[in-house]
Design a protein that fits this description.
The structure is a single chain. With 331 residues, the protein is an alpha/beta fold. The chain folds into 2 domains: 136 residues, Aspartate/ornithine carbamoyltransferase (Rossmann fold, 3-Layer(aba) Sandwich), CATH 3.40.50; 155 residues, Rossmann fold (3-Layer(aba) Sandwich). Helix content is 36%, strand content 14%. It is built from 11 helices and 9 strands. The strands form 2 sheets. It has a 5-stranded parallel sheet. Helix 2 crosses helix 11, helix 5 crosses helix 6 and helix 5 packs across helix 11. The chain starts with 38 loop residues before the first helix and ends with a helix. The N terminus is likely disordered. Bound molecules: aspartic acid. The site of aspartic acid has 6 residues, from helix 6.
């Protein structure tokens, strides 16, 4: 699998304070796509995330990134990604410049993304970027001297979400190889499933895609997975694949990506997981969702031990602590 390595010299931080480790695989690197990760890299990230979970439960916060500053630059709404990066940095003893509402920044005066990036990297050691355009994070890397972490580029990718998703699968089910993963909902516009499917291609898994016809997984991505010899099937109903499913990954229909509201209305509420649905599922399986949910999983499911989405959300902070520590040279 092609490994994305941003051009040397563009993303390395030239000012390396004494005592920082510079030999980790992600030191000074931008994280733009899950294509950058090998299985060994994932084992490494998950090992660090487990240590972070342990440290948080034992002592809460510690000074691993004391003196470091992260800029959180969000051009699209976010609850979990923005606040978990924020919490991750704070728990590691660093601090954050939060730009969650770009309308109040110079972006509203017409400032370009490259200029905003050049500005923030004067003040921060790394920049987390969420942007509505596919490729925005890669574009930012072209001008940045500091690491950029892609927190979602339109309908493109959401690599740290995929890392936390896979960390959740392996924590909950104690393996990834041999599992059957069913992704349900908006597979066309959902960036989390794009990244997760690519990561799963590194493992020996079966993937089922379940969606309405107009929201199928993009053909290029299916071709990419098939080139990696992933066993995959596509359906428009969940029933045929539910009983074999180990991980049911539910997604929201991405209302904001539709040009025609009538088309959105035609697929809104297309699947709803209820306690009744789960009667047809394995005893040992998990239900995941990147959240927010807008009706795809009934609240009555929350008490089922198989409902893993809130544990998944918590894992986001540990995985993002690991990513920050690795990128900033302390893992
Ligand atoms: N929070 C996730 C994302 O930013 C999922 C979603 O919005 O549906 O992609």
């Amino acid at each position: 699998m092609a490994v994305y390595r941003p051009p040397e010299g563009r993303v390395s931080n030239p000012h390396v304070p004494l005592g920082e480790r510079r030999d980790g695989p992600f030191y000074g690197k931008s994280i733009i796509s899950v294509r950058q990760f090998s299985r060994e890299d994932l084992d490494y990230v998950f090992g660090v995330a487990r240590e972070m979970r342990e440290m948080v439960s034992r002592i809460g916060s510690f000074d691993l990134l004391k003196g470091k500053i992260l800029a959180n630059l969000f051009y699209e709404p976010s609850t979990r990604t923005a606040s978990s990066f924020y919490a991750a940095m704070e728990r590691l003893g660093g601090s954050v410049i939060p730009i969650n509402e770009v309308h109040y920044s110079s972006v509203s005066k017409g400032e370009s993304l490259p200029d905003t990036i050049r500005t923030l990297e004067c003040y921060a050691d790394a920049i987390v970027l969420r942007h509505p355009q596919v490729g925005a994070a890669a574009q930012a890397v072209e001008v940045a001297k500091k690491p950029i972490i892609n927190a979602g580029d339109g309908v493109g990718e959401h690599p740290t979400q995929a890392l936390l998703d896979l960390f959740t699968v392996s924590s909950e089910l104690e393996r990834v190889d041999g599992l059957t993963i069913t992704m349900l909902g908006d597979l066309k516009f959902g960036r989390t499933v794009h990244s997760l499917a690519r990561l799963l291609a590194l493992y020996d898994v079966r993937i089922n895609f379940v969606s309405p016809d107009i929201l199928r997984m993009p053909r290029e991505l299916v071709a990419e997975l098939e080139a990696h010899e992933v066993t995959l099937t596509e359906h428009d109903r969940l029933e045929p694949v539910l009983a074999e499913t180990d991980v049911l990954y539910v997604t929201r229909v991405q209302k904001e990506r539709f040009e025609d509201p009538a088309v959105y209305e035609s697929v809104r509420g297309c699947y709803v997981i209820t306690p009744e649905t789960l009667r047809g599922a394995k005893e040992r399986m998990i239900v995941m969702h990147p959240l927010p949910r807008v009706g795809e999983i009934a609240m009555a499911v929350d008490d089922d031990p198989r409902a893993a989405y809130f544990r998944q959300m918590e894992n986001g902070m540990y995985v993002r602590m690991a990513v920050l520590a690795m990128v900033l040279g302390k893992a």
